[in-house]
Structure of Beta-galactosidase:
Amino acid sequence: MHVLNLTPIVALNCEVLDKIWFGKNVNGEASVRPGRAAAQAPPDHASPSRDGDLLSMAIFQHTIPLRCLWYLSSLPMSALVSVDPTVSWPGKNLEVHLYKTSFGACAAFLANYDTSSWAKVPFGNGQYDLPPWSISILPDCKTEVFNTAKVGQLPRLHPTMLHHLAMEIFYLWPYSDTPYRCGVEFVVSCYVHQVFALVSVDPTVSWPGKNLEVHLYKTSFGACAAFLANYDTSSWAKVPFGNGQYDLPPWSISILPDCKTEVFNTAKVGAPRFHRKMTPVNSAFNWQSYNEQPSASGGESSITTAALLEQVGVTRDSSDYLWYMTDVNISPNEAFLKNGQYPVLTAMSAGHVLHVFVNGQLLGTAYGGLDNPKLTFSSGVKLWAGNNKISLLSVAVGLSNVGLHYKTWNVGVLGPVTLKGLNEGARDLSKQKWSYKTGLKGESLNLHTATGSSAVKWSQGSFLSKKQSLTWYKTTFSAPAGNDPLALDMSSMGKGEIWVNGKSIGRDWPGYIARGNCGSCNYAGTFTDSKCRTNCGQPTQKWYHFPRSWLNSGGNFLVVLEEWGGDPTGISLVKRT
């Protein structure tokens, strides 16, 4: 990491910083701003700073301290984010926070908590005088650049003088040169004198036509700024103002910082849209599969009780998965066994996903949404006479961390769970005996690791499982050459989790489809989230990134857990260009 040495920068003082700010390097030569050729850099003789001597102007004597503070305070960022502070108390009501890294970056905050007396704070090789109840910032652990009690010591200048100085400075070149003098991001600051109009007077508001509105800011010392608005959502408008007319697109506002020149219109931003390009970088993966069987009552379980339990209270967040298992006995005399009108199994869950298995077969899946994670699964179910195994696999997709009393929000099957269509009518399964098992078998065997994967027999070739729930897939691949970011295109899969060399890159859910209308795009009028939608009918996410630093130079181990059922042959490794 390159660390910027603050000492020479502080010694050069703020005049140097202003030369940099206004397009000059530390030698006073014209500097080149990012994205602009050297031949286009403005020559020194065109500079409004009189050979860079910005300190000779009163207006810059006022503004320099603020810019220097911002600049200098931003320099020790590497120290602030790299280490925890060392805190010391060199005296009564005194405190020092020191940030110092092994690579030389250093920053310090000195505090005087006394509410009435100045204090001399010993630090480093010297002492620092701090006013009562104040903090000083030393971005290089030597030079005090700011104290919270000394803000009011900045010079105060009369607005009239500021206006005339601003006029002198900023009208020395045509408006078209403004971005080159101040940088595109500082165009607004080049109209300092117009700011005084905005903060010195209340606007005069007029309505020159239907759906048109003008806000005029004009001071007694000549500063002027205006905002023209067209509130029509479908038609352009000619807005009369001053000695001319201005064409405004529908639902837009134009800014005239000098009451003459339109420098910005909200509908003419024309921001470029960047479309990422994802390119496959390898041949098809050679997959192997392992099918996990649904857990059932009577097997290994952690808890058995005559109640439905909250999921996280059982799993303690050790797994996203919790099995709810029970038995249902069906009499041979049940009418549905003869007429084929199968009973309906209904299960209500607090969220987030529920897979329902009956006698080892997947009956169906339901999931909640962002607005309401709760869900209800209901489906006809084919049962046979005698004992039937009901297995509900509840899946959490994360824990709530925001919202009113979010710690009390529940996850899992809390019921009721009912079976309707029996001779007895409806049977409430909620209060019968339930068994619980945390996690999947593949999780306990660590199938996502190269070592753990050897614990089971995998299928491949023509025996490869596709479109089957609770299936594990594994393969190996070589790291592609280059430094382009890498990702997996998972659009052929449903929902699950991905591991690269034993490290989880996260849960994937390409089966979650973006709904809505992706028609024409028009932002005019009151904004709603239904405007200008894209990629309707597509997965909300199909590319899943992983860092190159996780890859080995040789073979790499890739494992995918698929909950719903997908086709692994559609997975591809892609790079972003």
User: Anything to note?
Assistant: Confidence is low (pLDDT under 50) at residues 1-75, 154-192. The first helix runs from residue 6 to 21. The chain has nine helices and 34 strands. The chain has four domains: 6-153, 159-265, 296-439, 443-576.
